[in-house]
Specification:
Elements (H helix, E strand, L loop, with lengths): L4 E3 L2 E2 L6 H7 L1 H11 L5 E2 L5 E3 L4 E5 L8 E4 L6 E7 L5 E6 L4 H13 L10 E7 L7 H8 L10 E8 L4 E4 L2 E4 L4 E4 L5 E5 L7 H9 L5 E2 L1 E2 L4 E4 L18 H8 L10 H14 L13 E5 L5 E4 L3
Parallel strand pairs: 1-10, 3-14, 4-6, 5-15, 9-10
Antiparallel strand pairs: 1-2, 5-8, 6-13, 7-8, 7-9, 11-12, 13-14, 16-17, 17-18, 18-19
């Protein structure tokens, strides 16, 4: 039996536009404003951070000794999803880009439920962030697709919905997101606007996986407190060196869903990803024997690569 999504303990209807959704539930507008008013973003200490990139998710519990905050940013049309069980404190954060939302939502729910005892009191609470009122309506489509939480085998309560029109601001005639990044404190459950100075471990490798079409991946083993990456697969494509000769504006226009509102480091990040792929055309060489790469947090707070487990 499929369970409903709730807003303020009321079952949510399905809508074909975000305008109708927000009009029917004005409480969402109020909670989004409260969240936006918490800006500017908090700079998260990297020594306690587990960073999640596009098409990744990670889940853990308050007992985790290696992670205090799970976070993600650089969300323009993408959405950042936080699902937490109030009883166990099990928390999952995912960065969704619309590539396969209907298959990704069940993974998020499963990740939290697998860390929660079936008889544990509490409820699943959902927080959605990202997107804006973009011309191509990519944000709107993803926002509506995320209502797939309405089709899960769990009651889920939507607590925060700072997405699309509710995460939009017009600056010099251009629509752009208000909030680009989110952190969630896995000890307390606090969700807050956040920014991050480091996006590792293995920023380029993880970006290459997404760039070459990799699907949503779980990047954390909470039972062993290890970041796990790969194995990844891609085919050599030397033709992509074409992009390294292009100017910044061309890269923005052809590689972004929202070229006017990307963060300042977007182009340099894309070039670094392409350069990584050119230097590593054979992905299998990065994962001998098809084994993932493992990273453990050191006493200094750095994710350090470990021998295969």
């Amino acid at each position: 039996m499929k369970m409903p999504l709730f807003i303020n303990n009321e079952k949510v209807q399905l809508f074909n536009t975000t305008v109708k959704l927000f009009r029917s539930y004005p409480l969402l507008k109020d909670s989004a404003k409260v969240f936006r008013d918490r800006l500017p973003e908090t700079a998260v200490d990297t020594k306690c951070l587990l960073y999640v990139k596009q098409r990744e998710f990670a889940a853990t519990t308050p007992s985790d000794c290696s992670v205090t905050v799970i976070g993600s940013d650089d969300a323009t049309t993408c959405h950042i999803v936080v699902l937490r069980h109030t009883g166990s404190g099990a928390t999952c954060l995912a960065h969704c880009d619309g590539s396969s939302t209907w298959s990704e939502v069940p993974l998020i729910v499963k990740a939290v439920r697998s860390l929660t005892k079936s008889a544990e009191e509490g409820r699943l609470e959902l927080h959605l962030f990202g997107g804006f009122d973009d011309e191509r309506h990519n944000s709107h489509k993803l926002s509506l697709n995320l209502l797939a939480f309405n089709k899960q085998n769990e009651d889920i309560h939507l607590e925060t919905c700072c997405i699309t029109e509710l995460n939009d601001i017009v600056v010099e005639g251009i629509h752009r997101p208000v909030v680009y990044g989110i952190g969630v404190n896995v000890k307390t459950g606090e969700v807050f606007p956040a920014t991050f100075s480091l996006r590792g471990p293995e920023d380029d490798l993880r970006s290459a996986r997404t760039f070459t079409g990799g699907q949503m991946a779980d990047v954390y083993d909470s039972s062993r407190e290890l970041v796990t990456i790969g194995p990844c697969k891609w085919s050599p494509n030397l033709d992509i060196d074409f992009w390294l000769a292009q100017d910044d504006e061309t890269i923005l226009q052809y590689m972004s869903t929202s070229p006017q509102v990307e963060p300042p480091h977007f182009v340099s990040h894309m070039k670094a990803t392409i350069q990584f792929l050119l230097e590593n055309p054979n992905s299998e060489a990065l994962f001998p024997g098809g084994a993932p790469r493992f990273y453990q947090r050191t006493s200094e707070g750095v994710w350090e690569r470990q021998a295969a487990c």
